Amino acid sequence: MSGPESRPGAESVRAAIEGTPARRRVAIGSSVGATIETYDFIGFGTAAALYFNDAFFPSGNPLSGTLLSFATLGVGFAVRPLGGILGGHLGDRIGRKPVLVGSLLVMGIATVLIGALPTYSQVGIWAGILLVAVRVVQGLAFGAEWGGAILMTFEHAPWRKRGLYTGLTQAGFPVGLLLANAAFLISVPLGAQWAWRLPFLLSAILIAVGIVIRLKVEESPAFEELKAEGEVAKNPLLEVLRTDWPNILRAFCLRVTETAGYALSITFVLSYLKSEDLAGRSTTLFALMLAAGLGIIATTLWGALTDRIGRRPVYLLGTAIALAWGVPLFLLLNTGRATAIVLAFIVSYAVCQNSLAGVQGAWFSELFHARTRTSGASLSYQLSAVVSGFTPLIATALFSAAGWIGPALLFSAFGLLGLIATLLTRETWGRAERAEVDALQRSLATPAANPVSS
Known about the structure:
transmembrane transporter activity, transport, disordered N terminus, cell membrane, membrane, Growth Hormone, Chain: A, MFS_trans_sf, disordered C terminus, single chain
């Protein structure tokens, strides 16, 4: 079976079809953790676009300050593959749960430290250096997070609802985005210093809640089965690179469209609206919060849709829309009208980004075997972060050289890359896979004819 778990043992067929008793608790726990990690990591992007160029870098040249701020943002994305490698290795060697708890704790400590950092006016160049150092720690933790959270959910979920369950976990990201930007919106009246410090300091409360929830989550049944059978990979990274590198490459290209598209249409656009005086901070944050609120529902629904029609059709739709959206996006932004800007954020996020993110949890997991799944999915997922992390920097340079058409065409180019990658990636939950699971489910309903259920 290519889509669902490849050739599960007879004793695990019923559990795979129905899911484990803890499936809902695991999905919610993973989603809560993803919410907190996103609040921490994406909050940095909002602060980089709106505040960090003034707070941590020389103020003589605003464009240079913006470039340095986005470069710092990119550093966190650049080290995410290292976090993915570390988290993937540990997840495949010692289990998914320890990675979930450890990554959340490290991310929380780093985020609170950002809120306490001195500024350029206080310590000069050391402000930027300290910011980069803490951002590196953030990137490592966030890189380790995704694979553990998604795969715990995926491996506890029933076969026919893996898109829904992993979509629910992916929906933790727009929830984190919503909370982060709500914190920044509320903190605007507090003045230049506390407007960016408070959201990071408030993360301490979320981290405490998240750790308690994740400590109560059960380990993945797929990993427990591998451990019981002595099939745990000794070097999962080398194994997946040797045996499954084409899937890593395909998933990387699929992911770039989503994550780099977000970095351009959200992170860069926040700075673009500010620099071109097209909208105030309150307007842009409201637009982003509304898009994130809709994205919570959209991500889950996009994932659920893949359970009905397959992973590839939904991804084809999302990448095709992204390909066509680059120029219309900036035409709407350039009107300077609040309604047009809100619409631009909604389409960019709830449609272009969420239609892809909602699919990735199930599709990427199904592309890899259980013994190397965390390493394979995490590596491909996080490698794309290197591209997306520096996308706002590249978009800023393109805008400086060619005007708004430069970033617009870059966005469409990411859509084209994803569209091609989708056509080259196998369907893992097509009609054949769904029919096979239906047949297994029917066989389980007739105990006398099926020894598996006895």
